[in-house]
Prior knowledge:
Structural class: alpha+beta
Order of helices and strands: EHEEEHE
Distance between the termini: 5 Å
Strand content: 35-45%
Largest sheet: 5 strands, antiparallel
Amino acid sequence: MKVLRRFEIMVPLHFNDGTAVPLELLTQTQTELEERFDAVSSEGQTIRGFDRESGDGEDELVRFFTDVPNTDDNLAFFRETKERLKSRFQQEDIWIATHLIEVL
Length: 104
């Protein structure tokens, strides 16, 4: 059995002003992950997010995820990536979740 860490990144399909995120920004994000880890997956459908606490209404998101070795270097990469994505997608925050997985 192989133990890896999955990183899941949720990025918006619209900027905060409601305009659509250009496809190039989504492609750039996918390409960066693929070039770093040789593999990346993404959801084919739009993910709808709701946050009652913020009152922002509904978000439309896409999820990228990749399974990588559980190393300090990879964790540092995703911390740095989060900051780049916040700027790229003009967001106060970008949701990146991580958890260990076991591959049979």
